[in-house]
Amino acid sequence: MLEKHRSINNRDYLAKKELMFSNHNSLTQSNHTRSSSRSRFELQVNRNPDDDSIGLINRKLPGELVLRVFSFLDVVSLCRCAQVSKLWNVLALDGSNWQRVDLFEFQRDISETVIQNLSRRCGGFLKRLGLKGCKSVGDGALRTFSGECRNIEELILEGCKKISDSTCFNLSNYCRNLRVLDLSSCPQITDNGCIALRLVQ
Questions:
Q1: Which superkingdom does the taxonomy of this entry point to (predicted)?
Q2: For FRET with 131, which of 52, 54, 91, 100 sits at 20 to 30 Å CA-CA?
Q3: What is the pTM of this model?
């Protein structure tokens, strides 16, 4: 009877000991996990692009001055500057830097999506756009362009074979400041489109 009682007590003791050890391991693992998570979080914070982008030039020069410098850059240089940091991305892609855009050199890479995004980004700032030879650009892109860039004054569409009279109608409805329009080598433009353009004053 005494041995049985001792056996029960031993089992209880071992069970309690195992429970305590298990709780200790769980607590240790939990603390280790929190510590590891904190380390990873701190590492992510240290890798934050904003921290990397806050260089001397950004601290010394006001954004207005950097924006003024960007206004003298060409399209390629602006795109490169936009990849430097978040701040430069905002400044480089500001619509005021994109008043005159010529995409002839990139004609093979220009899709309708590019023109639509450019139109929304530039908006009323865009005065001149050259799309000579951009054969992938069609009426859909020019529809967005007409609605977004109503202050356009010069538009070169030479060789844009996908555009039709629909583009002429949209330009006549929205782009009242248009003064120069090149539609040479655009076989889908008919007399109806040309007549619609006469309404532009």
A1: Eukaryota
A2: 91
A3: 0.67
